[in-house]
Design brief:
The chain is of the alpha+beta class. The chain has helices at about 5, 10-30, 115-130, and strands spanning about 35, 40, 45, 50-55, 60-65, 75-80, 85-95, 95-100, 105-110.
């Protein structure tokens, strides 16, 4: 997870903005739908920060987490792929997506109500947190 020290460091912010610029270009030329720190390298070292970039929306986030409430009563079966493995997972929605914007570096919340969005965000969060198996 990214802490306040990194978030207040102007050089770290420049690095993340540089990453954003490159993944936006990669989204145009690859078949990736999501980039996370797991498939990014900076200066030949794997990126360590909790980072997700959604190609379809152009949204980059740091420290993403899903917060479920009593209203999270719906379920969807998602077909997910990671590292040449495809599987079906049942996912709960709607939920609040809490994160730090990868462009403004401010905390934000977005309510995820659509099945497809729930699948993509929950899959990405599981990958970032090394929970996807």
């Amino acid at each position: 997870m990214v802490g306040t020290q990194q978030l207040s460091d102007v050089y770290w912010r420049m690095k993340i903005r540089h990453v954003n610029t490159h993944v936006i270009e990669e989204c145009k030329t690859t078949d990736y739908s999501i980039f996370t720190q797991k498939n990014l390298e900076l200066d030949e070292q794997r990126m360590e920060e909790s980072y997700i970039h959604m190609c379809h929306s152009g949204m980059s986030v740091i420290n993403a987490r899903a917060v479920f409430s009593g209203a999270s009563t719906n379920y969807v079966t998602c077909q997910e792929q990671y590292a040449d493995i495809t599987k079906k997972k049942e996912r709960q929605y709607p939920f609040s997506l809490k994160y730090i914007s990868g462009t403004t570096f401010m905390p934000e919340t977005k309510v995820i109500r659509q099945k497809k969005d729930a699948c993509m965000w929950l899959h990405a969060i599981d990958i970032v947190e090394s929970r996807w198996d």
